[in-house]
């Protein structure tokens, strides 16, 4: 940027000098004539995308145009370059005033030993508020002569219009903020990766630690469904055909005991030769055959139960408790599984106490000191007492 220290004979190139200025995009440039406030009465307006260039040999260069005010329209922005290097981007003001000598560019300190190319690129401009270029001036090297279309004026390089800060701010907009763009991309990628990791930890890691969230029966193993594989006991129902008819009732003299598991015939009530019921239990199967030498009331009572009779049923004595048989469908107990029930149990023996009662219910004293099992009580002393059989 020049601080107006460069002065001398400047060569001026007017906007309509198409021999010196090359308008690359002719369809985006428009010449305006009869402009009283302009140099030589002409200006050239360009819209966005318009480009132009100028070759010169000098140490300083400047571009002058017109800046005006247009309501509700953005001002034009123009980018300038020297030998392909962007040096400045200038935006015209739109502050309610008109400036017919607005300095868009003022650059000095160039190398005078070689030629330079000034590039003009209109970035933003519309037909309502275009970029209006009036002329270009440059400070030639010593001994240079202008062309026929150029004129010479003794002046100094004009100062940039407006403040230097606004010009610098306009220049700073020329380059894209590469660092900010790269940093934003990297930050966005890091945020995406962090979000994906958080989702994985919240969803998949929790599911792996707690096992499968759902249990499918098709993939179940035998150990997973213990309640389903364990055999459950079923109720044991006794059919009516398997229940034996009752052998005792109102018309029976005896109460039938449970049928022995060793006899295939149902229990039979023994016949008595007396009309009165006997107080003694009739012997069954003593091993002497069907003809016994004793009457039912005189037969000796054995202290031991005999199992030799095949036709007599086994009757449990009073006070004994029959062993309940388990249902075949009930689960076996631990003792049965261990084989403890296969050990034969000791036999329980029942003997006659020998105590007899008279008609008044009093015990009859024994006649001698001999065993009560061998005492025979006369038939006349017997009283009509019901049998002492009790159902098992």
At the first level of CATH, the class of the domain at 7-175 is Mainly Beta
Helical run tally: 4
CATH superfamily of the domain at 7-175: Galactose-binding domain-like
Report how far the terminal alpha carbons are from each other. Answer: 133 Å
Q: What's the Cα radius of gyration?
A: 68 Å
**Share of β-strand residues:** 15-25%
Topology, number of strands: 14
Biased composition (Polar residues): 318-332
Region (Disordered): 242-392
Biased composition (Low complexity): 258-284
Protein name: Mid2 domain-containing protein
Strand-helix topology:
Blueprint: E1 7-14, E2 21-23, E3 29-32, E4 43-46, E5 51-56, E6 58-67, E7 77-82, E8 85-91, E9 99-108, E10 116-124, E11 131-140, E12 151-156, H1 164-172, H2 178-209, H3 226-229, H4 334-338, E13 356-357, E14 363-364
Descriptive notes:
With 392 residues, the protein is α+β, with helices and mostly antiparallel strands. Among the domains are: 169 residues, Galactose-binding domain-like (Jelly Rolls, Sandwich); 31 residues. It is built from four helices and 14 strands. The strands form three sheets. Strands 1, 3, 4, 6, 9, 11 and 12 form a seven-stranded antiparallel β-sheet that branches. Strands 2-5-10-7-8 form a five-stranded antiparallel β-sheet. Strands 13-14 form a two-stranded antiparallel ribbon. Strand 13 and strand 14 form a beta hairpin. The radius of gyration is 68 Å and the shape is rod-shaped. It starts with 6 loop residues before the first strand and ends in a 28-residue tail after the last strand. The N terminus is likely disordered.
């Amino acid at each position: 940027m020049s601080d107006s220290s460069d002065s001398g004979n400047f060569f001026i190139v007017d906007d309509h000098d198409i021999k010196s200025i090359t308008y690359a995009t002719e369809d985006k440039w428009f010449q305006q004539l009869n402009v009283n406030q302009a140099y030589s009465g002409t200006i050239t307006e360009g819209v966005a995308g318009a480009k132009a260039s100028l070759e010169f040999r000098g140490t300083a260069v400047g571009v002058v145009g017109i800046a005006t005010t247009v309501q509700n329209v953005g001002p034009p922005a123009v980018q300038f370059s020297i030998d392909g290097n962007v040096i400045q981007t200038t935006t015209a003001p739109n502050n309610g005033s008109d400036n017919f000598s607005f300095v868009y560019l003022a650059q000095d300190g160039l190398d005078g030993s070689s030629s330079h190319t000034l590039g003009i690129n209109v970035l933003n401009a519309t037909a309502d508020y275009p970029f209006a270029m009036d002329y270009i001036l440059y400070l030639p090297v010593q001994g240079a002569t202008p062309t026929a279309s150029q004129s010479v004026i003794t002046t100094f390089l004009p100062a940039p219009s407006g403040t230097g800060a606004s010009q610098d701010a306009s220049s700073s907009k020329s380059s894209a903020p590469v660092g900010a763009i790269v940093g934003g991309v990297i930050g966005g990628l890091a945020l995406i990766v962090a979000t994906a990791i958080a989702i994985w930890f919240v969803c998949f890691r929790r599911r792996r630690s707690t096992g499968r969230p759902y249990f499918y029966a098709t993939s179940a193993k035998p150990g997973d469904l213990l309640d389903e594989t364990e055999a459950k006991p079923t109720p044991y129902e006794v059919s009516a055909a398997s229940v034996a008819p009752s052998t005792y009732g109102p018309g029976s003299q005896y109460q039938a005991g449970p049928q022995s598991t060793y006899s295939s015939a149902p229990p039979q009530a023994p016949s008595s030769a007396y009309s009165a019921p006997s107080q003694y239990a009739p012997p069954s199967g003593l091993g002497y055959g069907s003809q016994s030498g004793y009457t039912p009331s005189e037969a000796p009572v054995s202290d031991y139960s005999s199992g030799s009779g095949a036709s007599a049923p086994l009757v449990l004595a009073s006070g004994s408790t029959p062993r309940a048989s388990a249902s075949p469908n009930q689960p076996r107990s631990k003792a049965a599984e261990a084989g403890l029930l296969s050990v034969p149990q000791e036999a329980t023996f029942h003997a006659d106490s020998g105590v007899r009662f008279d008609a008044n219910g009093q015990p009859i004293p024994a006649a001698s000191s001999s065993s009560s099992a061998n005492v025979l009580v006369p038939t006349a002393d017997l009283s009509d007492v019901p049998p002492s059989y009790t159902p098992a």
